[in-house]
Amino acid sequence: MLEHILTIHYPSYQQQGFSLAPFANKALALAGTHPVIDRAIIELPFICPDISHFNRTHLLQAFRDEKVSTSSAILYTFWWGGLSHPYQAPKLYQNPVLDRLERTGGMIARELILLAQEQSIESFKARLKDIFMEQQRGEYKLSGIGTSFFTKILQFGVQARKQDNLVGPLPIIADKWSMRGAMADMKVTGFEWETIFIGPNKQGAFAFIGRVEEEFESYWKFINYFSERVESLRDTYQGIDAFRMEELVFGWPRDIDNPSNPRHIASQIIETKTHSYMTFQELRSKLNEDGIRIPNFPSLRSSTP
Known about the structure:
mainly alpha; globular; disordered C terminus; two-stranded antiparallel sheet
C-alpha cells in the first residue's frame, strides 16, 4: 500500500495548515490565566507569525527554537493534533494538570534529546520504553492525553533533535489513521498484523495489544515495521523517510471517498481486501512489473531487545 500512496502523492503532497486560534481561545476559556497557556500564546508568533496557517513545519520548529519552551511546543502539538474540545480539553485545562506539564516539560525535552543521541539499539529501546511508561502511568501522564497524542510529541520531538540517522526507528505517531495505514500495508506484505493490533472498534480504530508494558512492545513492533518498510523504498523514492511517510499515510479528513485519499485506500484494503482498482495480487503483480517490489518481512527489529 505504501508504494501506491507514494506513486500518487510523493513528493508533491503536503498537509495543509490551519488556524490554531480556536484551540488557543478554548484553552483561555477553560484555564483562564495560567503560565503554560499564557506562555504558549506569547511564544507562538516566534515560529508562526500567522496562526491561521499553522503546519507541520511550524510544529517541528517549535521543538527546535530555543525561544519556545517545551511546554508550549507540547501544547501546540495537542492543538495541531486536533485536541477534542468537548472531551479532552476539559480534562487537560485544569490547573493541577497544567502545573504538571510546566513541571515536566523540561524533563521530557531532556529525555527526547538523549533518545535522539543514543548509540545502541538496546539503549534506544530502553529509554523510549521509559518515556512511554511515564506517559502512560507515571510523571508525564496528563489527563485527557493518551497514546495517540503523546506519540505526536515523540515523533516531532525526536525528528527535531536528531542530527544524523537514529540508531533506532523514529517513534512515529500512533493515531487512528497511521495505525490503519500500517495495518493495511501489513495485509499487503503478509505481515501478521494480529501480533500488534486489535480491532477495529465501531469508529474504525485499532488499538495495540496489551496494557502499559505490553502495549509498548506492540508499539515497538509497529514503529520497526514502519521504519523498515520505508527504508526498503528509499532507493525507488529518493528522500522518503518515516517522518514524511507518516504525513502521506495520514491522508486528509475531507473527501474521504476520493480513491486517491490514503484513508480511502487503507479502508478498501481493511474492509474489502481490494485496492480501489485491483486486488492485492493484481496490485503486487503490477508493482513488480514496474520494478517496485513489495517484500515480506520474516524478521523485523521488533524481535531484538
